[in-house]
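Lecture 7 notes: from sequence to structure.

We start with a single chain of 111 residues. Read the sequence below before looking at the structure.
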Amino acid sequence: MDLQPDNRGDMLVVRAMEPRIDAAVAIQFKDRMRDLLAAAPARVVLDLSQVQFLDSSGLGAVVAVMKHLGPGRRLELAGLTPTVQKVFRLTRMDSVFTIHPEVPDGLRDAV
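Now the structure, written as tokens:
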């Protein structure tokens, strides 16, 4: 699973470089994210702008990562494509996550 981290002091931006987060890669995604989050700051932004498809396993993996962060740290999402955004809306997970149209503070170019 190709995830590109960019530590920006008080924020870790992780850019998912795969076109799909589905049952085939959900476990790899969770494991790789847990490795990246071991020493992450309180704010983590997951850039999903390259992800064109997310199924229920992928959604479950993103939720598991959020829970792994625990209290005091938060997982925010950015750059959801229309298909991925629809999954979050239909499952009402858009009310659980902070979702940004793009990576905050224009950090996408730096990732």
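DSSP finds three helices and seven strands in the chain. Keep this in mind for problem set 3.
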